[in-house]
Amino acid sequence: MSFNSFGRVFRFSTWGESHGPAIGAMVDGCPPGLALSEADVQPFLDKRRPGTSKFTTQRQEPDQVRILSGVFEGKTTGTPISLMIENVDQRSKDYGDVAKAYRPGHADYAYDAKYGFRDYRGGGRSSARETASRVAAGAVARLVIPEVTILGYVSAIGGDAIDPAHFDAAEIGNNPFFCPDAKAAARWEKLVDDARLAGSSLGAVVECVATGVPAGWGAPLYAKLDAELASAMMSINAVKGVEIGDGFAAAALRGEENADPMRPGDAGAPAFLANHAGGIAGGISTGQPVRVRVAFKPTSSILIPVETVTREGQASDIITKGRHDPCVGIRGVPVVEAMMALVLADHKLLHRAQCG
Amino acid sequence: MSFNSFGRVFRFSTWGESHGPAIGAMVDGCPPGLALSEADVQPFLDKRRPGTSKFTTQRQEPDQVRILSGVFEGKTTGTPISLMIENVDQRSKDYGDVAKAYRPGHADYAYDAKYGFRDYRGGGRSSARETASRVAAGAVARLVIPEVTILGYVSAIGGDAIDPAHFDAAEIGNNPFFCPDAKAAARWEKLVDDARLAGSSLGAVVECVATGVPAGWGAPLYAKLDAELASAMMSINAVKGVEIGDGFAAAALRGEENADPMRPGDAGAPAFLANHAGGIAGGISTGQPVRVRVAFKPTSSILIPVETVTREGQASDIITKGRHDPCVGIRGVPVVEAMMALVLADHKLLHRAQCG
Amino acid sequence: MSFNSFGRVFRFSTWGESHGPAIGAMVDGCPPGLALSEADVQPFLDKRRPGTSKFTTQRQEPDQVRILSGVFEGKTTGTPISLMIENVDQRSKDYGDVAKAYRPGHADYAYDAKYGFRDYRGGGRSSARETASRVAAGAVARLVIPEVTILGYVSAIGGDAIDPAHFDAAEIGNNPFFCPDAKAAARWEKLVDDARLAGSSLGAVVECVATGVPAGWGAPLYAKLDAELASAMMSINAVKGVEIGDGFAAAALRGEENADPMRPGDAGAPAFLANHAGGIAGGISTGQPVRVRVAFKPTSSILIPVETVTREGQASDIITKGRHDPCVGIRGVPVVEAMMALVLADHKLLHRAQCG
Amino acid sequence: MSFNSFGRVFRFSTWGESHGPAIGAMVDGCPPGLALSEADVQPFLDKRRPGTSKFTTQRQEPDQVRILSGVFEGKTTGTPISLMIENVDQRSKDYGDVAKAYRPGHADYAYDAKYGFRDYRGGGRSSARETASRVAAGAVARLVIPEVTILGYVSAIGGDAIDPAHFDAAEIGNNPFFCPDAKAAARWEKLVDDARLAGSSLGAVVECVATGVPAGWGAPLYAKLDAELASAMMSINAVKGVEIGDGFAAAALRGEENADPMRPGDAGAPAFLANHAGGIAGGISTGQPVRVRVAFKPTSSILIPVETVTREGQASDIITKGRHDPCVGIRGVPVVEAMMALVLADHKLLHRAQCG
C-alpha cells in the first residue's frame, strides 16, 4: 500500500523532488522478454519536456532518462526496472518567498499541516516535475499493450473548446497545444499568450482515447477499470475532475438516450451503435474505445498577487515568481496518456491472472 | 490487492450477488474500543433501502444487518467485523430474457466477455444491491471519524438542477429525493414520475460535503485524498464522473479566479476566503470542507425497447422487466456518503500511522 | 494490506471468533468456471474437525460450510466466494477464569496490551478455531491447482519422530495422528494419551510436500515462494518454526553436500539428483517437490497450574479448563495443507499474470 | 503487491542487479522530521561490505550510498527516500560458463524456467548483492524505532555452535564472524579457512534479538509479527529456515515446559519468567525480547565440480569461479538485522494506525 506506488501487478513507484539531484520511477511486475532501451522512453519524455515553446515553463531540462536495472541484452528481465532522470536546471533561489508564505492553490499549507515542514524548493515532491517519472513508466507500460493505441489531446483551454466537427488527429502534433482542431489552436495562441503576458494562467480539459482494448479488462468491484482510471487521473497535479464516456452529460440524459445499442458484429462480438459508456460497463472494458476526460485547473503559480498568510500566521500578499506553465493542462497530455497506458497494462496482466 | 476490497488500513471487502442468499461486508483494521451494534448501522441501510416510495424500485428488502464478528460486549475488538444482510425478495423469474440477451448499458456483455458466463439473476454481482454492503461498512467508518459531518444530497435530476440560493440542508429529509431545494423537489416529483410511467429513467448529480476534516489527511502522491475519493465514487454502479471542488468548472477559470486566498485565522490555521479546491490541495486536506460531485447515468434498465444481441449473436430487442429505480442516483446518496466516510476513516488512520 | 487477508491475486480473508455466531472466509480473485459446491469443501473441514477422537478437543462442531456467494449453477463466477461456518458448541462459561487472568503461552496478555481489552471467550479471534476458515478457503484453492498433489503428515510428536524408512503415505489415514509410520503411530497412542491424562500437552512437527508444482512459480524478491510459505505457515496458531527443504540441517552442511546436482531429464527439464532445496531456488519453484516442515509448540491450554498475573496485576496460578487438543499439531495437518494450497494457487495466477 | 517491495506502511522496494550500473532502494511511508544523512546509513553498509577479510568475497565494492530524495535540510520529509549504491567492481567475464550451464543451488535454472532467459552476470537480480539495498533501507528503519536495540550474531557455522555460556555481546565486533563466543570464533578461523582453501563452503545459523519492543506490535492474523519476520528472513538469499523463540525445539516440549510464566512486574506489565515464545504471542509482541533464528545454507558457488546440465540440456560439470563468500551466513548478520528493523518499524506504524 505504498503511498507513492500505483498499480497491482504491473506496478510503478516514483521518487524525487523538483530541486533534488534526480527523480525516478521503479517499474515492477513487467513481463520479461520485451525489447526496451532508453530510446523507447525518451520520445515520450521529450513530448512532455519543459522549455519547448513560450507556452510552457522556461525551465530547461533535458530529461534524459537512464535505465539502471531490469534490462539485459536489450530485453526486460522481469525484475524491477529503475528509471532515473537527473535534475539539471534547478533555481532554488526563486523560492525564497515560498519558504515563508503559502501559495494559494498549491500544496504548501497542506504539506506543512501534514508533515510539520516541507521542501519548498520548486514545490518539492508536490511539483508537477514528478510527472516526468510517470511518463517514463508509461513508456514501459506501452510495451505491454501493443494492441492498444492511446491518443490524448487538449479539448478546451480557458473555456474555449474545440469543435468536434473539426477534429483531426493529424493536427495534434502540428501545434504547441496538442490540439486536434487547427482553428482552435490558432485561437489558443493568443489566448494563452495573453494570459502568460498578464501573469495569469488558464485551465484546460484533456481527453484521452484508447482503442484496441479488448473486452474483459477491469476487475470489479473495487478495481473497476473506470475506478482505476479515475484514481490515476485524479492523482495528476492540478486535476480536479474525471469523466468516463459522457460523464456528467450522462446525468442529464434519459435511459434510452444513454443506451449503447448493439447489433451483431464481427467475430461473435457485438457491434455497438454508440459509446456513451466510454468503453466500460460494470467496470469492465467492452471492446469499444475507452474514453476519459480530465479537468486541469489553471496553474496556481501566477504573477498576480493573491492574499495569503505566512508560516508565522501573518497576512501577506504573494506573487509566484519562478518559471511556470501558463496552462499546465497542455503538458498534461503526455501524462494523461501515460496514466492510461499504466492502468491498461496493469489490467491486461490482472485479467490474464484471473481469467487465463 | 483484492479486487473486492477498498481501503488501506481501514479496509472493507464486500461479497454477494443480487439474488444469492445474502450479501455482506467485512471491515478490517477498525480501531478497537468503539461502541458498535446493529443499531448503529441500520439507519443508514434504511436510508438506502428499496421500496420506500414510488420513486425507487419496488423490491421489498428489509435489509436487516447482522454483525457476526469483531464486536464484544458492545465494542469493536480490533478484529474483522463481518456484516451480513440476507436477501429476501428475489424474483429470479423476471430475468429469463436477461439470460439470453445483453441489456445495453449493463455489465451483461462485459461479464460474459471477461468470465465466460455470468450470474444473470438481477445482474448478479454487478447489481446495485451490492451497495448495501458499502453502506453498512460506511456506518462503521463513521464511528472512526466522529469529528467529521457528512452531508450528501441530489443536486440535479435529468438536467434539472437545484438553485444554490435555495439550498436548505433541513429540506433533504423532507422529500424522497434527498433534495435540499424544496422547489426543485416539487418539480422532480413530476419529472421522475413521468419518466417512471414512460418506462424510462433519468440521470442525476449527487453532491457530498464533509466538514470537520482536519488539515493533513491524504497521502501523496498515489494515495492522494482526491484520487482515493475519485476511485471510491467511480466504483459505484452507474457513476460516470467525479469532481473535487469546482471540478470541470475550474478548467474554464483563470489562475486568479481559481485561487483560494488565505487570511490569518483562528488557532494558527489560515482562514480561507474561498474553496474552489474542494478542501484538498496536493492530495492533502486543507481543513476546509471536502466537496465532491458525482454523476450518475440514468438507470439502464428501462421498459423502452433497445436494440441488442443475444448470447448466440442474434439481433434482438430487449426491454428490461423487473423492479428498477427510475433514477438510480437518488438512492446513490447514502452510498456516496458511505464511500466518503470510508475514505476519510482510512486516511485518518493512515495519517496517524505516518505522522503520529 | 488487510491484516486478516492473505494472498495477492488469489486472496482470502477470514473473520470470526471462537464463540461468536459464526466464522467465515471470503475468497477473492478465484478464476471463473471452476466446479464448486459445499461438497468440495466439506471433506477438508471434516479432516480438521474437532471431537473425532480422544486425541483432539471434545468440542463438538459439525463445521458445516455454506457457500453464500460467488457460485452460479455449480461454477465459480470470478466474484468473491463467501464461506460461512456456524459455531454450534460454544461453552463460554468455561472461560470465567480466563477473563480475569492471562493464560501463559496464549495471546491473552498481548491482545489486552494491543487493543485495551479482548474477547476472552475461547480465545476469541486468537483461537485455533479460525483455522477452519483457512481449510475452507484452501479447498477452493485446490481447485485452482489440479496439477498439484499436496500431502501433509505429522513427523514427530513430543520429540518422538517417525522413521523415514517406514514412511508409507497410505498409513496417514489409518490413525488419528496423520502419521505415515505405523510403528510411530502406535507409540504416539500412549504418548498422547498419557499427556492428555496428565493434563499436559505435546508439541509436534508437521511436514507437507507438494508434487506437480511446475518450475517457475514464485515472484522474487519479496514474494518468493519460500517467503510466502514461511509467512503462511508462521501465521498458523502455535507455529514457531518453518523450514524449506533441509532447513536448519542445511546450515550444518558443506556446499558440495547441499548441492542438488542435475542431469539431463525428460522434456528439456533437468532431472535433479537430490532435493535439499525443497523444490525452491531463488524463491522460484524448480519443478521438484516443494517440501515444508513446520514446528507446532505444545498446546498452551493445560490443566497443570502455571504462574500468571491477573488483569489487575495480582499474582495468580491458572489452569486452563475447557476442551483442548492435547497436541494441537495433529489437527494442524489439514491447516498446513490448506496454506500450501493457498500459496500455490496464488502464485500460479501471479506467474500467469507476469509471464503469460 | 509489488514483488520487489516489503512492508505495509513503512515500505521499501529494491531494484538492481549484481553487475548493472547500480542498485538501490526506495523507502516509502517514513515519518517526517527524522534526522537522516548518508552518515546514518553508511556504517551499516560497511558492516556488510564485501572484501574486508579473507572470509568474505574479494569483490571490492565501496558501497557508498547516495540519498537522492526524501530528505530536506537534514530531515526526512515524509516523501519517498531514494537510496542508490553504484556498482564498481563488476567482472562479468567470470560468468561465461554460467551463461551456458545451470549452477546447482543457484536460481539459474529457476529464472530461466520462469522468465525464459536471465541476466547471468553475477546472478543478476538473484545475487546477494541486492541485500546491500536492504541494509540501506534498514538503516532508515532504525531511525523509526529508537526504542529498540537490535543485536545479530552468528551462532553456528558448519554445525559448530557457540556455547551459550560463553556468550559475550562485546565479542561480536572483535572477530570477522560476528561471533559472540571468542572460543568459537577461534575455531571458526580454521574451519572457514579450510573450507575456503578447499573451494568448498559452509552453512551458518544467525540469531537476532530485538530488545525494547513494547507489547502490542503485530497485526493478527495474517500480519502477525512472527509471520512477517518469517517472510522477511526467508526472503534473504540462502535462507532455508526461520524460528521464533524456541522454534523447533518447542515441538519437543510439553506444555508446562514451554509456558512462559508471569509474575507481577513494573508499571503494570507482567514480568515473564521465561521467553520460550521469543517475545511474540498470538502474533503480537509481548514486551519481551523478540528472538529469531535463521538458517543459511552453504554458499552454492563452490570450486568443487558438481553435475549439471547446460541450457541446451547437455550433461556437464560446473565449478563456479568468481569471488564468493565461503560462508554467506556471516555477511547475513547485518541483513538479518536490517530485516528485523524493517519489520519492526512497519509494525510500530501499523499499531499506531489502528490503535492510536
Automatic annotation (TrEMBL), chains A, B, C, D:
It is an enzyme of class 4 (lyase). Its cofactor is FMNH2. NADP(+) binds at R48, K54. SUPFAM superfamilies: Chorismate synthase, AroC. Reduced FMN (FMNH(2)). GO terms for molecular function: chorismate synthase activity; FMN binding. Pfam families: Chorismate_synt (PF01264). GO terms for cellular component: cytosol. Pathway: Metabolic intermediate biosynthesis; chorismate biosynthesis; chorismate from D-erythrose 4-phosphate and phosphoenolpyruvate: step 7/7. One of its GO terms (biological process) is aromatic amino acid family biosynthetic process. It catalyses: 5-O-(1-carboxyvinyl)-3-phosphoshikimate = chorismate + phosphate. Keywords: Amino-acid biosynthesis, Aromatic amino acid biosynthesis, FAD, Flavoprotein, FMN, Lyase, NADP. Gene3D superfamilies: Chorismate synthase AroC. Its EC number is 4.2.3.5. It comes from the Bacteria. FMN binds at R125, S126, S127, N237, A238, G282, K297, P298, T299, S300, S301, R323. HAMAP family: Chorismate_synth. Belongs to the chorismate synthase family. Homotetramer. NCBIfam families: aroC, PRK05382.1. This reaction introduces a second double bond into the aromatic ring system. This is Chorismate synthase. It comes from Sphingobium subterraneum.
